[in-house]
Amino acid sequence: MSAGQDDTAARPDQDCAKLAPRFQKAVEAAILECVLGGLDTYVFEAYRSQALQAAYYARGRSVVPPERPVTNAPSNLYSWHGYGLAVDVISKTQHWAAPESWFRQVAAVFRKHGCSWGGDWTQRDLPHFQWGLCKPSPSDLAREIVNTQGLRAIWQAVRADDTLQDASAAKAAATPSPPAATAVAGTAPVPADIENLQLNDNARDAAVVLRARFPHLVFTSGRRSIRSQAQAMAADVLKNRHFIAATYKPSAVCTACQKWVDAHAEAQTQSAIAEGLFSVFAAMSEADVMKFSKHLTGDAFDLQPVTADADTIQAFIRRLPLLDKFLDR
After folding, report:
1. Model-level pTM?
2. Multiple choice CATH, 16-131, 3.30.450.40, 3.30.1380.10, 3.40.1190.20, 3.40.470.10
3. Mean of per-residue pLDDT scores for the chain
């Protein structure tokens, strides 16, 4: 959501240093490329405070003119501006009156730097650019995270904070072991049980958000080796011989695993089934096997089933940033 034109009642903050680190770099690089290419761009508004949002909200209500409200959002957390993840960019000479063709040229540059454009929305907002991993508008979950854990937790959730990235890169350069504990919201280390899951960044951040919201949750599985993946699947096959075909995305590996189970009715123990599935994995290409389950790449985790507040927890999980799939069975 763009701020609209400036007036004496509220002046937009143009300080890009208040943006999420990776988004700040993207904006500054895009602006520089635009200027060098003959597009006289500048950031009219970057981070938007609650005080400024309140001033915008008053326009057309307690403050007139204008005669009509300019925004229906009383909180700055209903726009990515309030998270340091959006900017309004206009022309130094044409200001807000620049033609759509001008904004399209600017948008082409911003896309190259990982940003999305409000001009692509159904309700178009031509001057608006935001971090590309953000949905068009913040969700209730985003507001809950920032209110309970701070802005940095949101930046980490959408990979716009280079703190974790830099720490992971430094650790990876020093040792092949999984990333060390890092800070969430700038202070708290990753809990030991979550660190031990050996997850990649996105899955680890989601686990940290879950733990902060529901401290009683128990994580039972994270990254798996091929053998441990076979053992986990075998436990489920014992309960349902059609589990593999019913659970995993269709693929050559999925078909081969289910075919083995169907052809070996005599395999009635977890160890026997696990050995059979492991032999199937061993016969397939490593690339295909690694695509079979996100556990193998550290991009998935399992939780111990719960009964209390199950619906609330499931609804929260389904709204996690960057969620790909949630299986509740």
Report:
1. 0.57
2. 3.30.1380.10
3. 87
